[in-house]
Amino acid sequence: MSNQPLRVALVGPGRIAIAHLEAIAAARDVAVLVAVAGLPTEKDRTEELAERYGAERAVHDTQAIVEATDIDAVVLTVPNHVHASLAMALLESGKHVLVEKPLATTVADTDLMIAASEKAGRVLMAAQCRRFFHGAQLAKQRIGELGGPVSLIHLLGVYAEHAATAWWKSASDVGGLALGLNGPHVFDTMLWLIGAAPVRVYARTRRLRDQWEGEDEAVVIVDFADGSLGTGYLSLNARQPVNDRWITGPRGTMRLTDDRTLLVDGELVAHEAVTPYIDGDVSFDRQFREFADAIVQQRQPQASAREVRPVAAVLEAALRSHRTGLPVDLDLP
Ligand SMILES: NC(=O)c1ccc[n+]([C@@H]2O[C@H](COP(=O)([O-])OP(=O)(O)OC[C@H]3O[C@@H](n4cnc5c(N)ncnc54)[C@H](O)[C@@H]3O)[C@@H](O)[C@H]2O)c1
Questions:
Q1: Which of 124, 132, 181, 255 supports an S-S bond with 283, CB 3.0-4.6 Å?
Q2: Where in the chain is CATH 3.40.50.720?
Q3: Measured in angstroms, how far is the CA atom of residue 17 from the centroid of ligand 1?
Q4: CATH number of 6-130+283-304
Q5: DSSP three-state, residue 167
Q6: In angstroms, how far is CA 76 from the centroid of its own chain?
Q7: Alpha carbon distance 326, 318 (integer Å)
Q8: Which of 33, 230, 32, 262 is nearest to 136 (CA)?
Q9: Ligand 1: distance of its center to the CA of 265 in Å?
Q10: Omega into 250 within 30° of 0, i.e. cis?
Q11: How many angstroms does the Cα of residue 83 sit away from the middle of ligand 1?
Q12: 3-class SS of residue 101
């Protein structure tokens, strides 16, 4: 690629758009915001964000972004069920795409997206923002000190008083509920930290409140090929929020809290203050920079679509296990 800044559009001017627009603004040495695009029903919001972040234009027709010839890369912040079709159209028209998590709501769609990116020779990255905190990166570097196999437990509980946006009410649009919204965070970091293939998934779920179709509680146990064991607990009912991972191996214990604070055998080795992610933070900044660098350097990014495919497989297996009551064996390539 030339030394010209990357020309970027954001599609989907909803709740998480701000975090990405802040990240694009923070990378103005490498990227320029060409467009913010939304649906015709949200023109005011799209125009307001385009103006606030200095975009060259506001666009009210997603197809115009697909067809644009002055855009190199797109940050896709649309609802989960829209990711696959829009990402594929963008890839086929030659754009690099950073897709909010999860890449797609099914493994079949994930595979179609990976195939489209490889055919087009374009970067397709999942926005697994929580990997990009310093504490999480340090945990990845140091997990080998614990020896193996490890046992990892991740509690991720938030309190969602109601559906923050309409599509949360539909289990098929989200891919479950707690599993579709926060499962990508729990299982992406679990798979990334353990670094072995998941081989078996067992899930039990509950819906404690009837205001949505999907599960608002889930417990998922994942067996790994190296003998490691991962347990994820997800809740949308936690009036005391929690985001805590305990990782134990034969030679040590790590605790990673809020993706930022890391203790190794009880000793504090990393700490960053917690700020509301929805307004943007360093993890979104580093994530966008990784996307831009991968494009310029013509390499795969961290959290490339191919790398996170097993996360889609675990989530799909968890939903199946919940339906059948049985563990699901994975046979990943
Ligand atoms: N990384 C995180 O921590 C995090 C946090 C929140 C949301 N997310 C993810 O971000 C995505 C968006 O979530 P949100 O909470 O911002 O949802 P939202 O409903 O607030 O925003 C979605 C936006 O996309 C627009 N949209 C819908 N269909 C569209 C289409 N076909 N073309 C163009 N725009 C369209 C909507 O009108 C809305 O502006 C989801 O995939 C979600 O899982 C990630």
A1: 132
A2: 6-130+283-304
A3: 7
A4: 3.40.50.720
A5: helix
A6: 11
A7: 10
A8: 262
A9: 39
A10: no
A11: 9
A12: coil
Closest residue by CA, ligand 1 atom 36: 12
For ligand 1, what atom is nearest to the CA of residue 128?
Answer: 1
235 within 8 A of 200, measured Cβ to Cβ: no
Is 280 buried (19+), middle (13-18) or exposed (0-12) by CB count in 10 A? Answer: buried
Nearest CA to ligand 1 atom 6: 16
> Which residue stretches of 143-246 are H helix?
171-174, 178-181, 183-194
For residues 207 and 211, what is the distance between their CA atoms, to the nearest angstrom? 9
Dump pLDDT digits (tens) for 276-307.
Answer: 888 899 999 999 999 999 999 999 999 999 99
Q: What are phi and psi of 112, to 5 degrees?
A: -65, -40
What SS3 state is found at 48?
helix
Alpha-carbon span 254 to 275, nearest angstrom? 23
Q: Which CATH architecture has domain 131-276+311-329?
A: 2-Layer Sandwich (3.30)
Q: What pLDDT, on the 0 to 100 scale, is given for residue 228? A: 98
Q: Which residues contact 326 (CB under 8 A, 6 or more apart)?
A: 202
Residue 37, classed as helix, strand or coil, is: strand
Q: Nearest to residue 8, comparing CAs of 40, 34, 29?
A: 34
CATH 3.30.360.10 domain range(s) in the chain? 131-276+311-329
- For residue 16, the CA-to-ligand 1 centroid distance in Å is 7
Q: If pLDDT is split at 50, 70 and 90, which confidence band does 1 have?
A: low
pTM above 0.90? yes
